Amino acid sequence: MNRELLTLYGLKWNPFATELPLDSLMVSPAVDSFCLRIEHHLVRQGGFALITGEPGTGKSVALRLLAERLGRCDGVTVCAITHPSSRLSDFYREIGEMFGVDLMYNNRWASFKSLRERWLAHVDETRLRPVVLIDEAQELLPSVFTEIRLLASTDFDSRAILSVVLAGDNRLLEKLRQPDLRPIASRIRQRLVMTQAEAGDLAALLDHLVERAGNAALMTAGLKDTIVAHAAGNPRALAVMGDMLLAAAAENDREVLDEKLFMEVLGEPAKPRRTRR
Predict the structure, then answer these.
(1) Which of 47, 97, 104, 209 has the greatest number of C-beta atoms within 10 Å?
(2) 78 close to 131: Cβ distance less than 8 angstroms
(3) Whole-prediction pTM value?
(4) Are 211 and 205 in contact (CB under 8 A)?
(5) Strands 47-53 and 188-194: what pairing?
(6) Within 72-126, where are the H helices?
């Protein structure tokens, strides 16, 4: 949405965009507690953490908030895997670039050793484990899962030298139940389950988004109730509807976003009447 349209509605940014400013995001008590547990426990102990839930429930937002908070911690190195579906060779190339280690898949032993030495040096210097964040982790290949597990510990599996946070939908849970991935599941120290939101929580989220964007009166109370009801507990659905309505209102020079606009843009189409013979 361009600056002129934002100015038209008194907005500093589109409150329903996918990339909102971090300080405009609403942090639930569950997400805040999870981030604290990662900050104060996992980065010191190492091991795996898990964020799961249905699509649209806020897993990626929680991971983004966690990355921002860890980035403010002295001595913590945070990296994110951006291509979770990559093969093992691409995984080594990506993780080597993130940690500044020249890794070669055709010499996996030397690469494996170099990467672990880098992490061990970091742990010995800071007493904090490097952190790898993986969104859409259900796309990881089993071979990559196994390699991460082997890389993450040393001294006959008694010492964790890496913290890994996996975020994915319920397919990730199913994958971790597979026999060859049970060693990963057994190492999960912290969990966050993102569930469908209650109507009151969605209403609070909607109010928070428009207020932080600069216009608490952007929508009528009736429209807010309608959006919350149609979102059916899914924050992403709420944001998608809000974005569509805001774009439609701007296109048609509507000063207020109300229930009438909702019916025009998202309402059920009228059923054709049957003609009498």
Answers:
(1) 209
(2) yes
(3) 0.88
(4) no
(5) parallel
(6) 88-99, 108-126
- List pLDDT tens digits, range 10-60: 999 999 999 899 989 999 999 999 999 999 999 999 999 999 999 999 999
Report the b/e string of 176-194 with b at 16+ CB within 10 A.
Answer: beeeebeebeebebbebeb
Is 236 within 8 Å of 56 (Cβ atoms)? Answer: yes
Positive or negative, the CA dihedral 146, 91, 47, 136 is negative
DSSP-derived secondary structure letter, 15? T
Q: What would the pLDDT profile of 81-91 be if each residue is shown by its tens digit?
A: 988 988 888 88
Helices of type H across the chain: 3-8, 29-37, 43-45, 59-71, 88-99, 108-126, 142-151, 170-176, 182-185, 199-213, 221-231, 235-251, 259-266
Percent of the chain at pLDDT above 90? Answer: 68
Of 182, 80, 65, the C-alpha closest to 137 is 80
